[in-house]
Amino acid sequence: MNDGSAAPLRRRVRGALAACAVSLLALTLTFVGACSKPPAPLPNDAYLWQRKWTPAVASALEQSRAFVQTWHVLAAEKDSKDDWTVVSPDWTTLAAIHAPASAVVRIDGQLDDLNTLPVARIVKLAADWKQHGIPLVAIEIDHDCATSRLAGYTRFLAALRAQLDPTVKLTITALPTWLDSPALDALLAQADESILQVHAVMNPVRGLFDPAQARAWLREFAPRTRRPWRVALPTYGSRVTWGDDGRVAGIESERPMLLANGSTQGVVHELVAQPEHISAFVARIERDALPGLKGIVWFRLPTDADERAWSLATWRAVLTRAPLTSAIAADVRPSAQQRGLFDVSLVSGGNTDAPLPATVRADASCAAADGINGYALDYDARGMLLRRVQPGLLRAGMRRDIGWLRCGEVDNKKVSVHVEP
Question: What domains appear along the chain, each with residue ranges and CATH number?
Answer without folding.
Answer: 44-236+273-319 (3.20.20.80), 326-420 (2.60.40)
